[in-house]
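ok so for the tutorial part 2 we go from a plain amino acid sequence to predicted structure tokens. step 1 is just haveing the sequence, like this:
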Amino acid sequence: MSQTVQSLKALFERDLNSLKKELMAYEDESQLWIVQGGISNSAGNLVLHLCGNLKHFIGAVLGGSGYIRERDKEFNDKNVPRAEMAASIDETLEIVLKTLDSLDDAALAKIYEVRVFNDKPITTNIFLLHLSGHLMYHLGQINYHRRLLTAQ
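step 2 — the prediction. this is what the tokens look like for a chain of 152 residues:
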């Protein structure tokens, strides 16, 4: 396994585990769905979005998992039980790690098959780094949201 794949696996594992810890740290499950002021996405919807995003772009596109993404549901669903979201995070982690295990340096160097940035081609490696950054960005938002609403 390449050093790049090992590094990506370490980042996704760390951050998906942190996502689950943040989810579980909310004192009251109903707080996951609060939006107020300039906050337009609840922590619950961000969890759904992150799982859907990774299951699609890594699991389905790179791993051939067959996952069908319903992006609108990621932002429109409400009051999904915390246990269900925690299980989805676990499933996402399993899919991400399994898919990354199947990649080598040649696969990372290929142009990612879905054009996501103004149709500009990028390598799979760069897109995976983007996905890791996207996860970290929303993880930070969730952490901040939780700290605003809880004593922890």
